[in-house]
Amino acid sequence: MDAIFLQILNGLDKGAAYALIALGLTLVFGTLGIVNFAHGAIFMLGAFCAVAFNKLLTLSTKVEDTGVTLFKAYKETPYLKIWFPEAGPVLIDFSVPLSIVMAIPVMLLIGYVMERGLIKHFYKRPHAEQILVTFGLAIVIQEVVKAYFGANPIPQSAPSLMSGSASVGSWIGLGENVVYPWWRLIYLGFSGAVVFAVFAFLKYTTYGMVVRAGMRDRETVGLLGIDIERRFTIVFALATVVAGLAGVMYTPVLPPDFHMGMDFLVLSFVVVVVGGMGSLGGAVLAGFLLGLVQSFASMTEVTAILPGIDQIIIYLVAVFILLVLPRGLMGRAGVMDD
Q1: Cα–Cα distance list, 312 to 13, 14, 67, 72 (Å)
Q2: φ, ψ at 136 (rounded to 5°)
Q3: Which end of the chain is more exposed for a tag (fewer CB within 10 A), N or C?
Q4: CB within 8 A of 104, min separation 6: which ones?
Q5: How far apart are CA 153 and CA 139, in angstroms?
Q6: Beta-carbon neighbour count of residue 215 at 10 Å?
């Protein structure tokens, strides 16, 4: 029973990442009609925002090591620990969640520049051209990151879980025989909060209502004197922020490297298709569903009988669902039918 409980948590954790990336993809496709193959690269850029922020906080200088008495020795000490002996180590320890402060404006700017500089020129182009240009952009971003940060993964540590005045590590007890990385639980809660915020924004704000109306009938909304294109630009930037924040918070789970965006991109598109093209709810539902399926398929008992099933189970499930429901779980008529 404990093993099943852990697999459910693992599945929800994976599903949260899939759901956030797929949510941004669906938001862009639903508003702009753009099939954005650069969305995985945006997820990666968010992760490297956390890396860059950590490097900024840990800028250091050589300080004499007083623990060595036989000769003069020096050690690298971050400036923050020198300037703020008490607060500095805490800021460095919490660099991942604090990097959200840096990631939000950076991702907003990246999204705005991408949409105004490139994406807007492909609104009325065939989907094949959209895929080619955004995939090419993803490769460019990937190579730039590789050139600047290197090809090797860069581990980022989660903040230490504190109990009283002592650190108790990165694991938390969930039962008599069950321990689990506490940051994964934080990530799951964070993902739920972001999903809720996006849906609340679209459903309960006037701005969001206009965007939803524009998703249904852009021409009519434009005739009412509303600059729907400007609103769509902002929505594209917000979708970029969602993917970027997903990457920021995922860095303690998976060390960032230059190709992590491509790894998540294919799976996220499968999630979008299974959920139904243009369906935000479908993207979230499919993300968590496929995350759970992949988690259970990776159990030792399953892989012993069907080796490699964990690598292809998502695609098998996708094929089955699309055979039964050609538009996906919550897809609507008219989307991608042309």
Answers
A1: 19, 15, 55, 58
A2: -60, -40
A3: C
A4: 241, 244, 245
A5: 18
A6: 21
Buried b (16+ CB within 10 A) or exposed e, 161-196: eeeeeeeeebebeeeeeeebbbbbebbbebbeebbe
The pair of three-digit structure tokens given for residue 135, joined into one six-digit string:
């995939």
For residue 223, give both structure tokens: 């005739």
Could you tell me where the DSSP H helices lie in 74-204? 79-83, 87-93, 95-98, 100-117, 127-149, 182-204
Query: What pLDDT was estimated at residue 168?
Result: 46
Which amino acid is residue 23, in one-letter code?
L
Q: Is the CB of residue 45 less than 8 Å from the CB of residue 249?
A: no
Q: Which residues of the chain have pLDDT under 50?
A: 163-168, 338
**Which of 271, 269, 301, 306 lies closest to 286, judged by CA?**
271
**CA 70 remoteness from chain centre:** 50
d(CA 32, CA 117): 15
User: What mean pLDDT value characterizes the chain?
Assistant: 82
Give pTM, 2 decimals: 0.85
How far apart are alpha carbons 268 and 167 in whole angstroms? Answer: 36
Number of neighbours of residue 260 by Cβ within 10 angstroms: 23
pLDDT at 1: 63
Residue whose entry in the numeric block shows the structure tokens 């007890």: 173
